[in-house]
Specification:
TIM Barrel, about 300 residues, two-stranded antiparallel ribbon, alpha/beta, seven-stranded parallel sheet
């Protein structure tokens, strides 16, 4: 649990090391999926802020087979960190349950068959409207072998925002998916985005109460940033809109983190992207520096996650 003088939030890295006894690293996997708001099922163009190339390693996107991606990812991690590393197989790009169950089974089985020694978790990123019961059953079937985590995009609790960014699902869909996962042998991680210029500070802060009521174990907190290749990039160039500066983001976190449950493990408080894709804000191009600033700012303010949970 976070406490003053250590970390203002319940940080993911130390949590992993305590649980598994060693540093744990993610192997990003591109399963070749698309999204229902890209292929015409629910829309075209995807989320307006998204360009998958801006956050998924090129090696994962280039290699044709899952097993090749796993092998190359593991080799790179072992080369950088040495023996003894542990691994998470992370199906990251697009919607990783947007396919028939038998196709999903084949992809997940291929990844698990190629998994290096020390693999402790299978993590699957998806949307709340692509988690039918049979897909939940499939994911839970792997819980006998290793930890399985489902990462759901909440993004915003406000339907007006979900519509405006072309998400293609409602907040009710998100709540239904969370309830479908409650009580299953699956970890739940959430991804929430803040800083949409049309949302007020209070509207953003309300999200803490929603998150606290879910069975989530993990949370990624992202500030809105604009990347090349996204629909939002064209919108921003045509008519620039305000984005949160580093200090304003730290101030938001100082209000938001205390409202969250103390047991939530915070995987991220700063969004990152490959520098060649970043358009704005400029400070997002230095996530390490931003993280140092935020940590120092929150410690100075005496911020403690969960101290005012709602």
């Amino acid at each position: 649990m976070p406490h003053a003088g250590s970390s203002p939030w319940n940080a993911y890295g130390p949590w992993l090391k305590e649980r598994y006894g060693a540093p744990v690293h993610r192997i990003s996997i591109d399963g070749g999926f698309t999204c229902p708001n890209r292929d015409g099922s629910k829309g075209r163009g995807g989320c307006t802020y998204c360009n998958v190339d801006s956050f998924v390693p090129a090696t994962a996107r280039r290699l044709p087979s899952i097993s090749e991606q796993v092998a190359l990812g593991a080799r790179g991690i072992l080369r950088r960190h040495g023996p003894g590393a542990k691994f998470i197989l992370y199906f990251q790009a697009n919607t990783n349950t947007y396919a028939p169950v038998e196709k999903l089974r084949a992809l997940f089985e291929e990844a698990l068959a190629a998994a290096p020694p020390g693999t402790v978790e299978l993590a699957v990123g998806t949307r709340p409207d692509c988690l039918e019961p049979e897909k939940i059953d499939l994911l839970e079937s792997y819980a006998e072998r290793l930890t399985v985590t489902v990462e759901l995009g909440l993004e915003s609790m406000h339907d007006a925002t979900l519509l405006r960014v072309n998400r293609g699902h409602s907040h009710a869909d998100f709540l239904a998916a969370c309830e479908a996962l409650r009580g299953r042998r699956l970890g739940l991680g959430l991804h929430a985005m803040f800083g949409f210029p049309w949302e007020s500070r209070e509207e953003m802060l309300q999200t803490a109460s929603v998150i606290n009521k879910t069975p989530a174990r993990f949370l990624k907190i992202h500030q809105l940033h604009v990347v090349e290749g996204s629909v939002m990039a064209a919108q921003y160039r045509r008519e620039p809109f305000p984005l949160l500066e580093r200090e304003a983001w730290a101030e938001f976190l100082a209000e938001f983190l205390p409202r969250l449950r103390a047991d939530l493990v915070i995987q991220r408080v700063v969004a990152s992207t490959f520098p060649r894709y970043l358009i704005a804000p400029e400070w997002a191009g230095d996530p390490s520096g931003a993280l140092r600033f935020i940590r120092s700012f929150l410690l100075e303010k005496g911020v403690i996650q969960g101290s005012r949970a709602v």
